[in-house]
Amino acid sequence: MRKRLVVPGEITLITGILLISFAITLMVKADLGVSTISSLPYVLSVAFDQISFGVWNPVFQLCLLFLLVCLTRRFKSGYVIALLLSLLFGSVIDMFAWLLSDLPTSMEHRILYAVVSYVAMCFAISLMVNSKVPLLIIDMFINDLSQFYHVTFRRLKTIFDVACLTLSVTFSFVFVGELVGVGIATIVMAFITGAGVHAATRFLRRVIEIRPWSKTLANMAR
Question: Which stretches of the chain drop beneath a pLDDT of 50?
């Protein structure tokens, strides 16, 4: 059996945050519909543009944290770190929005951006979920609820994405008056991201073994 490379969970978590921030920003650039997990913050950033897309993301995740605590009736110390990571996540999104602002926008490039962002997002989610340290709130929300209700991460991820898509379409027409941020890429990703994360996880488990440096952080993720 081939020996796997041991990677600290703290490294995979930060790598995942950078990768998913890049993926989300690239999908915005593709303009074929943003990712399902960011569709609602994007619609709100268009409707209330005094607040940036990057800032709306941690606001959305804070609402998810409140809902998670209400449903599970449990507050873990890792949630505090998850909140701080969500603030970092929003800042990195705004940074990538600036860095990628001058990319070409021909149809061929936009399709390429959508494909690359989907693959990057699946690997990013897998890296974060399997890091064994506190996650972003949005991933902790799905991970903790899947354990609480005894359903697979893949199934709950798909349910969550479809729910986000439905709310995004509703909020888009209510607050903007037209459909924004939701396109063919959003709809497709709502149904295939769960499967993509599952495939990425199977691949990563063949080549790396994730072990957190800090036992304290690992305990917070439980």
Answer: none
| Run of H or E residues at 93 | helix 78-99
User: Is the distance from CB of 197 to CB of 157 less than 8 angstroms?
Assistant: yes
pLDDT at residue 47, rounded to an integer: 93
Q: What's the gap between Cα 8 and its chain centre?
A: 20
Burial of 105 (0-12, 13-18, 19+ CB in 10 A): exposed
Angstrom CA distances, 201 to 10, 124, 208, 215, stand at 17, 10, 10, 23
Measured in degrees and rounded to the nearest 5, phi and psi for residue 182 equal: -110, 120
Token output for 132: 């064994």
- pLDDT number for residue 220: 62
| Tokens found for residue 198 | 């599952």
3-state secondary structure of 57: helix
Q: Which ranges of 105-183 would DSSP assign to H, the alpha helix? A: 107-129, 137-148, 153-171
Angstrom CA distances, 3 to 6, 8, 208, 209, stand at: 9, 16, 9, 9
125 closest CA partner among 198, 219, 212, 40: 198
* Strand extents, DSSP E, the chain: 5-8, 208-211
Q: Which residue has the tokens 């936009």?
A: 110
Query: How many DSSP H helices and E strands does the chain contain?
Result: 9, 2
Query: What does pTM read for this prediction?
Result: 0.83
169 token code pair = 């379409």
| Gap between the Cα atoms of 110 and 183, Å rounded | 13
User: What DSSP string runs through 179-200?
Assistant: --S--HHHHHHHHHHHHHHHHH
